[in-house]
């Protein structure tokens, strides 16, 4: 850590990790409600748990992106963050808003109030005052990082990262547009949802991965940055018109079926490119970075994003298929692995990379950290597979045969039991990860005998 | 690779191409916006009651169990076509009665059955919610869902 203000990231990551724990625990509660529907049905109805599950995910990922930016930017721009004070004020607004959201949801405070009550469009359930808070915090953030970037060294990494963040902030403004016409509402609702996760977030993802590759592999910056531009180009070329794959059945013109099918089919390209890029960089790179866990998370991120976002996305993106699968457990399967692979693993990769540096110690507990990767990832992959099977059976029974929703759901109990089991693995993995990056002071595996070479480098003695 | 494409070329392709696709998307957005107000629905039927029904739908976070036009939480049935499924799409009075009757019998408390919470709505609010669901049932969804099961 070469710059003092990079430490801002530490506070962001702490809050993010706390919310990560909240998110997966609510996920597990919902998984249990699926197999035992009377559980907490009066105290914590499913919809409340679901809001907390999805909202806390989005907020901790955002905090992860903000923290990542505060860490990456000083190193790339070669100067301190413009105003650490503003960065902490921004975090304070987020923490206050998050606590407000949790209390408002759990106790349904100010029901129906235009400013203080929850709003209730999917993922945008936050009360309006929280939405305004997010917008204000986002503007403070953009001012702070843009000032830093403008005065410092300009690199492709900061350029793409800031473009992604500006896009994120501008698209957020559509969260305030809620027309009475449901078709219009949905048309622009997707500008926040789709154009975030399948648009500007991919810019942020590619930039953070590029930074990690520069650090972990030591590959020439010129090569990394060229590929960064190629990757984000394919992301936006496919992702912008790919929005059409959400416009098939919500009352918009039929031409979106072809535009959406064709362009969203190409949304797999940037994920394939990121995966290939990361592996080639690691093979070609000559640096033997001690933080192997960060490398595992980075590579795991690109592979699982390729499968979750790319392959599982393509699985149901063609309109002829989507006509039958739209809004079934297939969507849930895709959503889980896509978010996990593309964004959860990404933030965890960066946290794994930064934590030892910020704590000024060696990357201890690589084994626990890597174990948490395999535990969490295999849990998530298994969950995706069970939900895919559940969704396939549901699609056939409900959409083809015309069976009623609840009857079909009753027949899927076995899959929901297996999903709960995989959820347990994910929660244990998440808690293990948080423990591994924050708490241990020494490596659990003692180093074996080593031989020192004349040039000073150490090697394991056979 | 460096011979065929430099970093600056890649950057220019990214900028130029993105602007190109944003412009196309912008043009299609304008057309779709007009379509959504004129062809997809009959906005003259979008009464204050329908608009109020949408807010009732929102402030009770219905979408975090149900889906509407396939978007939502997949935990409870699709509601975009619920009035058609109940056979009351053309009969607003029965739609109101059926919806009210259904919601007032919740939660069932039946063991092993997913529970819908109790929402204490007034008659006026049941009417608005029912009008909203009836209006949603008239949206031209390109024939989705494939059948009444939703």
From TrEMBL, chain A:
Membrane among keywords: yes
Entry annotated with the keyword Membrane: yes
Pathway: Nitrogen metabolism; nitrate reduction (denitrification); dinitrogen from nitrate: step 3/4
Reaction equation(s) it catalyzes: nitrous oxide + 2 Fe(III)-[cytochrome c] + H2O = 2 nitric oxide + 2 Fe(II)-[cytochrome c] + 2 H(+)
Annotated GO MF terms: cytochrome-c oxidase activity; heme binding; metal ion binding; nitric oxide reductase activity
Subunit structure, interactors included: Heterodimer of cytochromes b (large subunit) and c (small subunit).
PANTHER family registered for this protein in UniProt: CYTOCHROME C OXIDASE SUBUNIT 1 (PTHR10422), NITRIC OXIDE REDUCTASE SUBUNIT B (PTHR10422:SF43)
Protein known as: Nitric oxide reductase subunit B
Source organism of this protein record: Paracoccus versutus
UniProtKB/TrEMBL annotation, chain B:
Domain of life: Bacteria
Alphabetic keyword roster: Heme, Iron, Membrane, Metal-binding, Transmembrane, Transmembrane helix
GO molecular function, one term: heme binding
Transmembrane annotation, as ranges: 12-36
InterPro entries membership: Cyt_c-like_dom (IPR009056), Cyt_c-like_dom_sf (IPR036909)
Residue ranges constituting the Cytochrome c domain according to the UniProt record: 48-137
PROSITE patterns (alphabetical): CYTC
Protein name in the entry: Nitric oxide reductase NorC subunit apoprotein
Source organism of this protein record: Paracoccus versutus
């Amino acid at each position: 850590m070469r710059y003092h203000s990079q430490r801002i990231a530490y506070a962001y990551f702490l809050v993010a990790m706390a919310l990560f724990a909240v998110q997966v625990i609510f996920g597990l509660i919902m998984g249990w409600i699926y197999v035992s529907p009377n559980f907490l049905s009066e105290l914590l109805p499913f919809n409340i748990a679901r809001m907390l599950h999805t909202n806390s995910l989005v907020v901790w990922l955002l905090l992860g992106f903000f923290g990542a930016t505060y860490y990456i930017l000083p190193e790339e721009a070669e100067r301190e963050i413009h105003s650490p004070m503003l960065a902490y004020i921004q975090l304070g607004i987020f923490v206050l808003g998050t606590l407000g959201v949790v209390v408002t949801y759990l106790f349904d405070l100010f029901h129906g109030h235009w400013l203080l009550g929850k709003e209730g469009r999917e993922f945008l359930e936050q009360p309006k005052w929280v939405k305004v808070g997010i917008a204000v915090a986002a503007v403070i953030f953009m001012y702070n990082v843009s000032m830093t970037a403008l005065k410092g060294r300009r690199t492709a990494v900061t350029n793409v990262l800031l473009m992604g963040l500006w896009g994120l902030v501008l698209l957020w403004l559509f969260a305030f547009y809620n027309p009475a016409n449901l078709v219009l509402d949905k048309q622009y609702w997707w500008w926040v949802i789709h154009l975030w996760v399948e648009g500007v977030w991919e810019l942020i993802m590619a930039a953070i991965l590029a930074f990690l590759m520069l650090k972990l592999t030591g590959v020439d910056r010129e090569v990394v940055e060229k590929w960064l531009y190629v990757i984000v180009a394919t992301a936006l070329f496919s992702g912008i018109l790919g929005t059409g794959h959400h416009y098939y059945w919500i009352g918009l013109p039929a031409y979106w079926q072809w535009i959406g099918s064709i362009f969203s089919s190409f949304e797999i390209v940037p994920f394939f490119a990121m995966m290939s890029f990361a592996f080639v960089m690691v093979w070609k790179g000559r640096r033997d970075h001690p933080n192997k866990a960060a490398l595992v998370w980075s590579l795991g991120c690109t592979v699982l994003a390729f499968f979750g976002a790319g392959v599982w996305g393509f699985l149901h993106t063609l309109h002829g298929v989507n006509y039958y699968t739209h809004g079934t457990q297939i969507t849930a399967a895709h959503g889980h692995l896509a978010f996990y692979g593309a964004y959860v693993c990404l933030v965890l990769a960066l946290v794994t990379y930064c934590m030892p540096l910020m704590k000024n110690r060696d990357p201890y507990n690589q084994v626990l950290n890597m174990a948490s990767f395999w535990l969490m990832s295999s849990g998530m992959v298994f969950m995706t597979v069970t939900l895919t099977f559940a969704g396939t059976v549901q699609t056939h029974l409900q959409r083809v045969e015309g069976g009623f929703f609840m009857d079909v759901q009753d027949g899927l109990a076995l899959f929901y039991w297996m999903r709960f089991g995989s959820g347990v693995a994910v929660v244990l993995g998440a808690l293990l990860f948080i423990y591994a990056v924050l708490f241990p002071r020494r490596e659990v595996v003692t180093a074996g005998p080593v031989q020192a070479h004349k040039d000073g480098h150490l090697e394991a003695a056979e | 690779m460096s011979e065929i494409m430099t970093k600056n070329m890649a950057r220019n392709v990214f900028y130029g191409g993105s602007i190109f696709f944003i412009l196309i998307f912008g043009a299609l957005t304008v057309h779709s916006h007009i379509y959504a107000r004129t062809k997809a629905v009959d906005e003259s039927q979008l009464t204050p009651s329908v608009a109020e029904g949408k807010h009732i739908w929102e402030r009770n976070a219905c979408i975090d169990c149900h889906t509407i036009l396939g978007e939502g939480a997949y935990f409870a049935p699709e509601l975009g076509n619920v009035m058609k499924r109940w056979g009351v799409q053309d009969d607003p009075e029965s739609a109101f009665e059926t919806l009210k009757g259904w919601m007032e019998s919740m939660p069932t408390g039946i063991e092993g059955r997913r529970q819908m919470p109790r929402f204490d709505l007034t008659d006026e609010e049941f009417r608005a919610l029912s009008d909203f669901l009836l209006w949603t049932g008239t949206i031209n969804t390109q024939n989705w869902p494939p059948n009444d099961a939703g």
